[in-house]
Automatic annotation (TrEMBL):
This is HAD family hydrolase. InterPro entries: HAD-like_sf, HAD_2, HAD_sf. SUPFAM superfamilies: HAD-like. Signal peptide: none annotated.
Length: 649
């Protein structure tokens, strides 16, 4: 019978309805929900296990609990929390997982709810039937054989905007009684004092929804559904080589120059999302300028997991802009961070690095006998610097601006996230902007980066994580693939605006340097690439969300593509990168060119033989460096050499 043509008699007071495949249907097999849940659990808790193994554990745990309940009460059913508790015990034993039960249960349920929301759609025929009967004041109850509690089903109803139609929710897990046995009907009829002939049941399962309700004198209607797509979907999901092929096909269908940069960016935002959930961070700040594009692509990923509740913010920041607010009173300050890194410098560059260029005329007037433009060797011990630091005008400007800008920075951060602990994101290397913010604000800061290099300072109150590569004392996650082409992260994630010069008062909070040449490079070369990468990332995210693969499993598929592309790039990629420039605005103020001056081929080879580490290490991108020095053929042995090293890790 067609439900749209069905009219309930006036004697019917209660409309009972199944939920899954009646009110809603899934676009995948129900078991795929569990498989995808397993992949996400692996991601979030960083489990050293593959999706199939965790899925097998879950299925065995479900079966064990069902058998136990069958022995006790005659019902093949289980409660979700019982399942999670048993799985957690197994993971603690097998994987030495150190995790609170409360956190595991909370996140696991949120993940399953989120996946269910993503795979479901409403069946409009049943919704129309609900709406028609609701007008007659018929009470509508959802009755589902499901391992989750009634609250879970209610959350799904809210998601589909139909909760206003439903009066109550009942699940087999809450009662440990099922429709399949008929005992759940008996329990609900008794608990709600419902006369069976005043109730009408609808559902897709002939036995559980129709036959068992009719045996209790409840009127019933079968809602036929087509389940053929479930088996097709499950067959593909369980056929890993086909999933792998589809993933690579998605990637290679977009083979524009540097398409392979989508791989580390995808792995980074996925690992970042998982880490933020682990750390229970609710507000995360992406630092300018590379953070602009990182935030843009992270937001796409984050939107597909709304249960995480992560809010993202963008903050203007630079080494120059955060440096002065981080400094101590002048009598205690040695400027070591700046002066130890840049030994040769002019007074102009020093003052500009402090963000005090607007005060240059005043300072030059006070120190007329000093040339501010001439670079000084061993600048930190120069007479020019000593005289500047002793001048009354510099002392006054330094102290006033240091205090003001620290206050502006504090107000800016408070406007973004209040007084919460800070969670920052940037491309990285040593996290100096994070250090400056921590010093200026004296509050706990955690930074997440594409990579962290040796020399970075990290403490419990100022913690740093390199999610693609991480080199620190006694800590190494030295993936030389992602560490091979660091310049790409800075260049391809550049921003639509200039660098922060200084912090100022609300509502502007900052003054930016608008470098026309830099912005021209961005609009002409970088932004078009970013848009292409974004489209490809959207497809990879879709593939991730619609397949039961953990990030580590996806990385294992995609990483060889990146590896080959970064070591053996196309000529067009090297040529286009060679034309780009990167602007430095702290310690030095100039463009860095990637098309560095070449040496004679023989001279380069001699240098390579005598000091290979230095010769190769100074190149921004090794294949381009070989090409610039007329030794392009060296990229092949270099690739084999690096592969041999990486295979040992």
């Amino acid at each position: 019978m067609n439900i749209d043509k069905t009219t309930l008699s006036d004697s019917i007071e209660y409309l009972l309805s199944d939920f899954f495949d009646t009110v809603v249907s899934r676009n995948c097999h129900p078991e795929e929900v569990k498989m995808r849940w397993c992949s996400k659990i692996i991601d979030i808790f960083n489990l050293d296990i593959d999706t199939q193994q965790l899925y097998d554990i879950r299925i065995k745990c479900e079966a064990a609990i069902c058998q136990s309940n069958l022995d006790k009460s005659g019902e093949l059913e289980f409660k979700y929390n019982e399942l999670l508790a048993l799985m957690l015990n197994i993971l603690r034993t097998n994987l030495s997982l150190n995790l609170s039960k409360e956190l595991f249960l909370s996140l696991s349920k949120k993940i399953e709810l989120d996946i269910e929301k993503n795979v479901q759609h409403l069946n409009k025929d049943v919704v129309r039937f609900f709406e028609k009967n609701k007008k007659n004041n018929t009470k509508i109850y959802i009755i589902s054989d499901f391992y989750m509690d009634a609250d879970f089903i209610q959350e799904l109803a809210k998601h589909h905007c139909i909760s206003h139609l439903i009066d109550e929710y009942f699940t087999s897990a809450d009662f440990l009684k099922t429709k399949r046995s008929g005992n759940l009907y008996d329990a609900i009829l008794k608990e709600r004092n419902i006369k069976p002939t005043s109730a009408y049941m609808i559902g897709d399962n002939i036995h559980s929804d129709v036959d068992m309700s009719r045996m209790r004198d409840i009127h019933a209607l079968h809602i036929p559904r087509d389940f053929s797509h479930y088996e097709k979907s499950l067959k593909i999901a369980k056929h890993n080589p086909k999933v792998k092929k589809n993933l690579l096909k998605t990637l290679r269908a977009k083979e524009f120059d540097f398409y392979w940069m989508a791989i580390p960016l995808f792995i980074f935002i996925a690992k970042l999302h998982n880490r933020l959930i682990q750390d229970q961070a609710k507000n995360v700040i992406f630092l300018a300028r590379e953070g602009e594009f990182l935030k843009e692509i992270f937001d796409i990923y984050n939107e597909s997991y709304p249960i995480a509740g992560i809010k993202t913010h963008y903050m203007y920041a630079s080494r120059r802009g955060t440096y002065l607010p981080s400094l101590r009173p002048l009598k205690d300050e040695d400027f070591s961070k700046l002066l130890n890194q840049y030994s040769d410098m002019s007074l102009n560059v020093f003052i500009d690095s402090l963000g005090l260029a607007d005060f240059l005329p005043e300072l030059e007037s006070d120190l007329k006998h000093i040339n501010f433009t001439i670079p000084q060797t061993d600048f930190k011990n120069s007479a020019a610097l000593l005289q500047l630091l002793e001048s009354k005008s510099f002392k006054k400007v330094y102290e006033e601006e240091r205090k003001n800008r620290r206050q502006y920075l504090e107000s800016y951060v408070d406007k973004l996230v209040g007084k919460e602990d800070l969670y920052l994101v940037d491309v990285g290397w040593k996290g100096s902007i994070q250090d400056n913010i921590h010093s200026a604000l004296n509050r706990p800061v955690t930074g997440y980066y594409c990579g962290i290099l040796r020399g970075a300072h990290s403490t419990s109150e100022n913690n740093k994580h390199g999610l693609l590569f991480h080199e620190m004392a006694n800590e190494e996650n030295l993936d030389s693939v992602y560490n091979e082409f660091r310049a790409s992260y800075e260049v391809f994630c550049s921003a639509s605006h200039g660098s922060l010069i200084e912090y100022t008062s609300a509502p502007k909070f900052g003054i930016l340097e608008e470098n026309e040449a830099e912005l021209k490079i961005f609009s002409k070369h970088i932004r078009p690439l970013q848009l292409n990468l974004r489209k490809l990332l959207e497809e990879l995210i879709y593939m991730k969300n619609n397949n039961a693969l953990s990030i580590s499993e996806i990385e294992a598929i995609l990483k060889p593509v990146y590896e080959k592309s970064v070591f053996l790039p196309k000529t067009s990629e090297m040529n286009s990168f060679a034309k780009l420039e990167h602007y430095e605005n702290f310690g030095v103020f100039e463009f860095s060119s990637f098309d560095a001056g070449s040496s004679n081929r023989l001279t380069y080879i001699k240098s390579l033989v005598s000091n290979p580490k230095h010769t190769v290490g100074r190149e921004w991108w090794k294949p381009l460096g070989f090409k610039n020095n007329r030794c392009g053929f060296l990229k092949y042995p270099y690739f084999m050499f690096k592969k041999s090293i990486m295979s040992k890790k």
